[in-house]
Structure formats: structure tokens, C-alpha cells
Amino acid sequence: MSVSIERLDVRRIRSDFPILGREVHGHALRYLDNAATTQKPRAVLDALRDYYERHNSNVHRGVHTLAQEATEAYEGVRTRLGRFLGGVEPRGIVFTRNTTEAINLVARSIVEPRIGSGDEILLTEMEHHSNLVPWIQLAKRTGARLRHVPITEDGRLDLDAFDDLLTDRTKLVAFAHASNVLGTINPVERIAERARAKGALTLLDAAQSIPHMPVDARELGVDLLAASAHKMLGPTGVGFLWGRPELLEEAEPMLGGGEMILEVHLDRATWADLPQKLEAGTPNVGDVVAFGAALNYLEAAGLAAIRAHEVELTGYALERLRSLENLRVYGPEDPEHRSGVISFYDETIHPHDLATMLDLRGIAIRAGHHCAQPLMRRLGVPATSRASFYLYNERADVDALVEGLEEARSYFG
Amino acid sequence: MDRSFGQLDDLYREVVLDHYRSPRGRDPISEPACRHEGVNPLCGDEVELAVRLEEDRIADVQLRTRGCAISVASGSMLAEMLPGMTLDEVGRLGDRFREILHGSNGDGTDDEEDLGDLEALRGVSQFPVRIKCALLPWVTLREAIRACKEGLRSPERATSTEEDSP
């Protein structure tokens, strides 16, 4: 690539996040739980406040000025998000509460009407519960069968096994772009291409990828894609589904009510056009508007620069963690093949004890099963510790983590 | 350093670390025993517990904990203390233990239960998210005793999200 990528000015970025200035237990906060949720820059907080102080109104139906402003702001973010995803049509974007709701919407509205007993849904062993449980429920309702692509020892999808598991019976392949435990970035184009050749739909759980790297929805070749605003500097309470519009046109609405109708009689109704058809009820206008400020912030920083920063930081963290004896570090060796998520396990100290000890030094990591119990079973551990990075993390965060880990090991060892 | 290091020593007292490093009650017990498997779905900790009753006394306890230092130590203390106690005594001890985990200092009267090593887990009260770790073996024990009373002998798996359900 000949395009040069600007380096992030991390010091300046950090000053945009008020929470990074606070102390926890007398230490500067070192926030390393970005795979769970990310912190918010002042611009996002200001946008939320500005919306409620100046423009608050319900959307789509009002004639008055505030209603027009609120509608423009809300729909403006949809358009903005379309550009962010590589220039997709805004009418293919449906706002939901979170990634989980977007996946449930796909299950109910798109997959359920076209699946039956004997058909198969292909998932993977590294999925988050949000991309497992809706399919378990669907299988129960329809008699469809669930299959799972296994993972290799270094935490990648076993693509030979995928090729074998993908058959004419496969109606949907649903998988994570980046694993929230292993950090593995999956080869989306290859999987999507093979699935398409077999006539199966593809759903990408992009919750752990879209915040961290340039993602072009159409280039990836998937039919549907889901993610959450709060994992990309935006507020909680907003997620989205992008789908090929012709697919969404056929979708049967999961929820009925206001906003999603064209005409209602006492005994029948017709549906509005996309995307309103799939957004019943008053949407989360304020948080969607603030999400727009998060998208602006991310683009100003540059997704390629964010990705380069995380690759560098992850490489540094992997090197330091791997130098510790008896510490299992999961996922692919090469930071180019993974996101900024690192899970590890130490026989001498339980992840919860470690998380408590690090918290006392102001370091926030995650300990537990990370909503991926089947993957924990596959790894043969009850829980792991996980550190996950974002654009505002720096080497000093990694150093603090490793020092804290070493101290905890000597405490318990 | 601090405040944080002091707090750490409050949580992981030497007695706690000793129970964690060499947990008691791992040897198999003689039958008939009632069993229960407790899990904390929030963190994945697991306790497999077997208890043998002789009338209203606990004759023997065996348990295996896959979990953090707090849950392992709490289970180990339980296994050490309970054999020989009546179910009423166990109930009172469990109640008293729950009280200190929730920060109660007691009323200072002489008839309070002697907490023994469990006293060392008092520091957990400063870490509210960890209270459920300390209680997991106790919740599991309660279910195993219930199984005994109902004449069940098969291991049942139940979850204990409640940090302190009645």
C-alpha cells in the first residue's frame, strides 16, 4: 500500500475523554475493557446534551420545527453510518438497541420465514452468546439443525472443516468478524464467497471489528451485518443491522406498532417502507444523534490509523505477556491476524482474583467467560482474563498491566 | 501504597491463601452421600459438593471447587468446620457468615457463633462483587442438604445467581 497512515496523537486523544482523567483506588485509571464497552469522548457527551437542550422531539410525524430538526438529525446519522460502512444505502440500515437485538431481528424476520426442519444453520465455536442463543431458540421453533465450525489450536476457524460443514442444507452462515475472546480476525470474504456459492445467507457479527478497523460492508460480501454503538465511542442503547435492501424488503417485521406502518385498519395493516418497517415505536433518537458524533470522531482519527495503533500496541502486549512463564496467551501469534483483544490464563491465579488485584491499581480488565461459555469449554478453562485496547490506550497501560500481573503472581505463587 | 495494598491484604489474609493453596475436604467420603453441583454463571466458578448426614448431624463433607481464591478458601473452611455439627448449628453459622460478608460487626454478645477461620473472609465485605464467591459453597451445601431431605441421590445441577438467597 502506498497510502501513508497518520500516526494517532494518543496524548491529544486521551485529553478528549474526561473519564480517563479519573483515579481508581488512588491510581490513574487504566481502562483495558474496551471489548465490553468503550469510553466516550467529550464530543459525544456534548452532542447528547445539545440534542436534549435544543432539538428534542419525536421523529418522522411532527410538522413543527423541533420535529423536523430531530428527524433530520436522526436520519442524518443513518446516512452518515451508510458512508461509514463503505457507502451502503441508508435504507438498509435498521437501528436497534444493540447487536443482540439486531441478530434476533435477523433470526425472527429474515431467517425464520425461510427455514424448516432439516435445514441447517452454520455457526462457529468462537461465537458470543448473542450469536448462539437466538439460533438455539430458532432451532427449537423450526426444527432446523445447528452446526458449528471448530477452531484450531491457535484459535482460528478450521476452514477445511467449514468447507465440509457447508452443504446444500445450509441456509445461513452466522459468524463473528473478530472474536471477543481470542481476538482472531476471521477471513470474511472467503467464508462469504463459499456460502454464497451454496446459496446460504451470511450474517456477520461485526461488534468487535467495526470500531477498530476500516470495514466495507459490500466488499466483505456478506448479506447482513450487526454491531453496537457503545463499542465504538457511542452511547449504550444503540445497535444496528445493515442488510442488503432486497433482503430486508422481504423481511417480516419482528415488532409491530407505531412508526412501522403505512396504513392501519382495525383488523389489518400494511407496512411502511424500509427502514421504518423494521423500527417499530419511538426510536432512541438522542443516543442515535450522539452516535453520529462518535462516527465523526472515529473518522477524524482515521480507522486505518486506529487499526495501525492497535496492531502495534497488541504486538507489544503479546511480546511482554509471552515473556512470562506459565502464562497461556490465546489466539493467533501474529498481531496482523487479530484485533486488540488478548485473553490469557495463569494456573496460579484465578482470573477473578487477578481482576480484583489489578482493580486496586486502577487497571480495568475483564475476568470471566466473556459470554462465550462454549469457547471456554473448548479451551478447557472456567474463565480467562482479558485485556482489550482502543485508540486511547498506550504502552504505559500495557506496562501497568504486566507489572500488576507479575505482582499478583508473586502474591499467590 | 498504599491504601490499595492494605485492602488487598484484607481480602487475601494468610489464612485464606493457605486454604486456597491446600484446600481441605477433597477426599472422597463414604456413602450414602447427597450431592450437588453449584455454579456461578456470572464467572463460571463450580463447586461439586457431597455431604453425608447421620441423623441431624453432618458426618462428612467432600468438595471440589473450580474457582477463585475466595470461593476455594470458603469451601475449604466449610469442609473443615462442618463435620460433627448439627444442621441447626450449620444454619446459624451460615447466617452469621452471611452477616459479616454484608459488613455486620455483630452485637458483641457471647452467644454469637464462633466463625473460626471464616472470620478471615470478613474483608470480602469491602468487595461486594466477590460476596457471591464466598457464598457459592454455602449455597451448594444448602441444596445438597435439601436433596438429602428429599431423598434424592442423583447429582443435580443448579445455578446460584443469587449472592444470598434465603
Describe, in short, the structure shown.
The complex is a heterodimer of chains A (413) and B (166). Chain A is an alpha/beta fold and 413 residues long.
Query: What's the total helix number of chain B?
Result: 5
Structural class of chain B: alpha+beta
Mean pLDDT of chain A: 96
Specify the overall morphology of chain A. Answer: globular
Strand order of the largest sheet of chain B: 3-2-1-4
- Which range best describes the helical content of chain B: under 10%, 10-25%, 25-40%, 40-55%, 55-70% or over 70%? 25-40%
Q: Which overall shape of chain B is indicated by the principal axes computed on the Cα atoms?
A: globular
Query: End-to-end span of chain B in angstroms?
Result: 39 Å
In spatial order, strands of the major sheet of chain A run: 4-10-9-8-7-5-6
Describe what this molecule looks like in 3D.
- The complex is a heterodimer of chains A (413) and B (166).
- By secondary structure, chain A is of the alpha/beta class.
- Chain A has 14 helices and 17 strands.
- In chain A, the strands form 5 sheets. A 7-stranded mixed sheet of chain A has the order 4-10-9-8-7-5-6, with helices on both faces.
- In chain A, strand 8, helix 8 and strand 9 form a beta-alpha-beta unit.
- The N and C termini of chain A lie far apart (48 Å).
- Chain B has a 4-stranded mixed sheet.
- In chain B, a hairpin with a 2-residue loop joins strand 2 and strand 3.
- Chain B is globular, with a radius of gyration of 15 Å.
- The C terminus of chain B is likely disordered.
- Chains A and B meet through helix 12 of A and helix 1 of B.
